[in-house]
């Protein structure tokens, strides 16, 4: 997948899915099958972008470094970094309040996202 295509899909995914959780907006009203198909492809692009970040960070990481991941753009990064190096010190920080459980449970990938964030040594 080309970098520009990944970027476009990530931005769209963030606008429609993660932003709604953080800003308490409802899901767009679309055909259910089309929304599901869209979500899957956008979510794959989102995880792929996080893997690309993990590849670059891992390449430059030196023992003793601390890695800070910021915001909902990089929710999978702690998990991917820990998979590459379990001794790496990873922190993740969200610049907005985490969505309530009522809002969070609407996201189909909620468990994966939460487990990934909780892979970090420090969450703020």
TrEMBL record:
Q: Which region is the signal sequence?
A: 1-26
MF terms from GO for this chain are:
alpha,alpha-trehalose-phosphate synthase (UDP-forming) activity; trehalose-phosphatase activity
Q: Which Pfam families does its entry note?
A: Glyco_transf_20 (PF00982)
Q: Manganese among the record's keywords? A: no
Q: Name one GO biological process term.
A: trehalose biosynthetic process
TM stretches of this protein: none
Keywords associated with the record: Signal
Q: Which residues form a coiled coil?
A: none
Keyword Secreted among UniProt keywords? no
What's one GO-annotated cellular component? cytosol
Q: Which Gene3D superfamilies match?
A: Glycogen Phosphorylase B
PANTHER family reported for this sequence: BCDNA.GH08860, TREHALOSE-6-PHOSPHATE SYNTHASE
Could you tell me what this protein is called? Trehalose-6-phosphate synthase
Organism (species) = Gossypium gossypioides
